[in-house]
Specification:
Number of strands: 5
Structural class: alpha+beta
Radius of gyration: 21 Å
CATH topology of the largest domain: Beta Polymerase, domain 2
Distance between the termini: 59 Å
Strand content: 5-15%
Helix content: 55-70%
Shape: globular
Length: 241
């Protein structure tokens, strides 16, 4: 039995033991892609009857951590809509690209088809206000990054992290692609734009390893050029009331 099959069998035992009422379950994340390590947690999406409540739980089963995404069948459309609005699609990707564990009545197959349709449609485009706000925020981060003395390493590293996240958000949105956080940030970024994405990641690495902000600032300018250039004076935003 391969490592992936072993993890899949482990996830199925978890679902069977904890959720005998499950109408379907899917294994996602690194485990579903064959990239799990012995310390990796299990990302498991479980479909529940409508009498159950939708929630997120973290448990330990047979010594391994498991992050559970629990949804009633009726809640799935609204939940997928929320995932799409965030442009991240965590649970969407589990259902669309994961490994099926159990599907006794066909609910999982239908949910998987719905998830794939939502992913294929892509995340919503940035509104004009979101686009301008993103340009302004990323310009501010870029300016702060260049202006921060290399000796102020705590500040420099913090600014570099925020710069990479904001640039990733804008670049993936520009391409109509999904974004991510944590280890999924570089994966989604490189998938959306291999050339500019690598420049951003290499620039971030240059800050971390050499306290050199210039490569990241240059990569950010390339992203801003796609969106209309840096935005400083002239920016205006209405306060929410």
């Amino acid at each position: 039995m391969s490592d992936q099959e072993t993890v899949r069998a482990e996830a199925l035992r978890l679902v069977t033991a904890r959720f005998p009422q499950a109408l379907g379950a899917m294994l996602g994340g690194s485990a579903a892609q064959g990239r799990a390590t012995p310390a990796s947690d299990l990302d498991v999406a479980v479909l529940l009857p409508d009498s159950d409540s939708s929630r997120r739980e973290v448990i330990r089963h047979d010594g391994r951590l498991a992050e559970l995404f629990l949804n009633s069948v009726a809640d799935i459309p609204e939940f997928f809509a929320g995932d799409r609005a965030r442009r991240r699609g965590t649970v969407l990707f589990i259902y669309a690209e994961g490994l099926p564990l159990t599907d006794p009545h066909g609910h999982l197959a239908r949910t998987r088809d719905r998830a794939r349709a939502v992913l294929a449609a892509g995340p919503p485009a940035l509104t004009p206000a979101e686009r301008e706000h993103g340009r302004y925020v990323l310009t501010c981060y870029m300016d702060d990054l260049v202006d921060t003395p290399p000796a102020d390493r705590y500040e420099q590293l913090s600014i570099a992290d925020h710069t990479l996240r904001e640039a990733t958000h804008l670049l993936t949105a520009h391409h109509g692609a999904w974004t991510g956080i944590g280890k999924w940030l570089p994966r989604r970024l490189l998938s959306a734009d291999p050339e500019r994405g690598k420049s951003l990641l290499d620039g971030h690495l240059a800050v971390a390893e050499h306290a050199d902000p210039e490569p990241l600032a240059t990569a950010v300018e390339q992203v801003l050029d796609l969106l209309g250039g840096p935005l400083r004076e002239g920016y205006s935003q209405r306060w929410s009331t």
